[in-house]
Amino acid sequence: MLTDFLILTAAVLWIILSISVWKWHPFLSLLVASLGVGLGLGDSGASVLNHMATGFGGLLSSIGVVIVLGSILGTMLERSGATQVIAGALLKGPGRNHPVAALSFLGAFVGIPVFCDAGFIILSKLVKQLGEHTTVNKAGLSVSLATGLYATHTLVPPTPGPIAAAGNLGATSYLGMVILLGLGIAGVTLAITVMIIPFLTRNIQISMTQEPVKEDDRYGPMSLVRAVLPVVLPIILISLGTLSNLMELNLPMIGFVGTPVMALMLSLLVGYFSLGIGSIKSFTSHCEEAIRLAGPILIITGAGGAFGAVLKSSSLADDLSVVLTDVPGEGVVILLAAFTIATILKTAQGSSTSAIVITSALLATIIGDSSNHPPFFIALCVMAIGGGAMTFSHANDSYFWVVSQFSGIKVREAYRGYSVITAIQGFTVLLVVLLLYLALL
After folding, report:
1. Which of 4, 125, 301, 372 has minimal CB crowding within 10 Å?
2. What are the b/e assignments for 321-344, b being 16+ CB within 10 Å?
3. Does the pLDDT at position 216 exceed 60?
């Protein structure tokens, strides 16, 4: 048993060092780790390769289409100007009186379908507009927007990371629960951080430089309802599908349209008309751009599935379950392990998505068959992983540079403001997850 744990530890260290120090692509790093673990645990080469292929294809077969469809939806919202319409409505409403909270929750809403990097670039010019009507400095406004985007990026499907975690842990049949839980925990987390952001950023001065936002595909005036509908619709449909399954209702149509694939396909159809896309040519252009963005996520996700399959096929799963049965508070230990592993991976190699994919593959080995655990506990595991993957964003994270460069915050000040807030966010998520577990399970 000790040898098996040492092999697993060596694999995790290899992943961290190869990605963060030696600059390997996560896809190759995970493949090498999968092969090394399988051979090290005594499996034959042919068997290891078979498990890797099965794991790669198995995970992508369940969530690959969802990732691509979610990426297309996000690109449509970005390129049609829908995110700017939503933001404009905010500027006329609560944004003037409560700018930090307004930008945080705007970021959280936009961050569900739109990658946080793109979302910040699109919305960053709002900081300048809001800054002219409020006493809060622009650094605080920039950080509030960034952390709002970041919260749903790591906690709420159909963002690729949480989707991959749900797939690895067997939670795709109740994805609506994961979405609603993620929204709730993200909301609580942001409610706390918006009170801290003005204090941490009060002495940070910035020179705002506005980058042009690509708007060549905007199609004219758009109402707020038309802009919001494609985002809200899949959340409602998936949640209804999950509720139908959990309550064992005999509603085949609800179950059908509530599957993530069908919910997102219907949202794309609605978005095609509500966002005024106008032509199949434009829609095809959005699809091509979205697929290019989703490609790297897909191969990393698949490699994480391969790594998880090798671990599940080994004796590690049985060994870990034996250890955990002798540990008091098994659920708390699992949640702490999920958070800690994700935090280490995120801090070491920078990518939240990679940290989520790798951690969920490891955690699937620890918890064994997910059907032996309540769905709510598995959803909490997804949240714990997401919380760890937002702790701590710094210079090896591409989003750190997007935030600092587009907001005009110096790197030293970004560490003091933005990076510290991401750590507070992550530990707040962990605290909420543990409290929910202790109160409800």
Report:
1. 372
2. beebeeeeeebeebbbbbbebbbb
3. no
Give residues with Cβ within 8 angstroms of 19, minimum separation 6.
25, 26, 29, 348, 349, 350, 351, 354
Question: Computed over its alpha carbons, how large is the radius of gyration of the chain?
Answer: 21
Per the structure, the complete domain to which residue 94 belongs is given by 26-440
Q: Over 80: is that where the pLDDT of 395 sits?
A: no
pLDDT for position 243: 78
| pTM score above 0.90 | no
327 in a structural domain: yes
Handedness of CA 305, 307, 312, 318 (dihedral sign): negative
Domain assignment of residue 275, yes or no: yes
Q: Considering the domain boundaries, does residue 3 fall inside one? A: no
Domain count, the chain: 1
In a domain, 10, yes or no: no
With a CB cutoff of 8 Å and minimum separation 6, the contacts of 15 are 26, 29, 30, 33, 345, 349, 358
